[in-house]
Amino acid sequence: MLLLHTSDWHLGMQRTQTATYQKDHDFFLAQLCALLDERHVDAVLLSGDVYDTGVSRADAVRQFSGAVKAICADRGLPMIVIAGNHDSGDRLAFAGELLRREGLHIRGRLSDGLEPVVLDSGRVAVWPIPYFMREEVRRGDGTPCGSSEEAFSILTADMAARLDPSACNICMAHTYVTGAPLGESDRAARVGHADAVSHEVFSAFDYTALGHIHRPYAPAEGVRYSGSPLKFAFDEESQRKGVVLYDTAARKAEFVPLPLLHERRTVSASWEELTSPALRESLQGAYLNLTVTDRVASRALTEDLRVLYPDLMICNGQAAEESTGEGLTREELRGLSDEGLMKRFLAERCSLTPTERQTRMFLQALEAVRNGGDPA
Ligand SMILES: [Mn+2]
What we know:
Blueprint: E1 2-6, H1 22-38, E2 43-47, H2 58-74, E3 79-82, H3 89-92, H4 96-100, E4 104-107, E5 117-119, E6 124-128, H5 148-162, E7 168-174, E8 176-177, E9 196-197, E10 207-211, E11 217-220, E12 223-225, E13 242-247, E14 252-257, E15 263-269, H6 271-274, H7 277-282, E16 286-292, H8 299-308, E17 312-317, H9 330-334, H10 338-350, H11 356-370
Parallel strand pairs: 1-2, 2-3, 3-4, 6-7, 7-10, 8-9, 10-12, 15-16, 16-17
Antiparallel strand pairs: 1-13, 5-6, 11-12, 13-14
Helix pairs in contact: 1-2
The chain binds manganese (II) ion.
């Protein structure tokens, strides 16, 4: 069988305050479907972070619904999905029992059990492990595990004891494997010592399809991150994005790069260079992080550049700072209190002045968040 391994779609992620990556995701899904047909793929594995947030935007749910229809219904391929740390396992696994009959196997929570999905008349077994908190796994004496390494060791030892060694056994997990390179967009990756897992915990499997790290990366032979399909941050500018194809007969994995609707480019240049047709031409169709070397950062500068570059995402100015009257210098910004900063933001962005009660609620919520609590 030829399996396609992908992860970290983050459907619904906000690109700016008002825009998402919806078109980029649509483009990726079209590429994915074309590859399924072209390479005669037999099943799809999605290793977590289907959505960007636990309570997903309606358009993101619609997008995922379209993707599973294209894979399971239109092409008749089995698809196996695990929840990642960004997903709500319960929401993701809605109607799981029913969908299983249609070839869509979603594992949202550890408590739903760790049975394999058996494919190709038993020649291939996929063992999905949804994202979990290590405390959910108990030791033999009933006490909770103290590290992810310990929790994964217990889970995979249990699977190893039950697996058919003559089959090709595949594990799916959403976790941080020791040594994996972290980027800006892996923002929620928990990487404390207690959260890292060594690749050896997966040694009973022929292949482990990992999610969590957004760079395509193989911590060991047969243990891989496919990486995210899109570039979600500027430090991913030079990475190639794509999916992994795994051949269960040959026990071989191949990274297949896929084109992106928008690349990312970081450029530092003078105003004159940035407004020249040659540079504008070469930056067409990319999400941009621009630094204007001879201007001071301001909203007006950003707005002026956005006329030339609609996909401008970050705009900096490098000229010596001085108070321009319309913006704040870094020094002035540092001098503002939480309340002052909030009021300034609302005045500038929304032309609003909060009431005393709203200000009080904001400060209380801020304090609750800082104390590690819930703002609600
Ligand atoms: Mn992710």
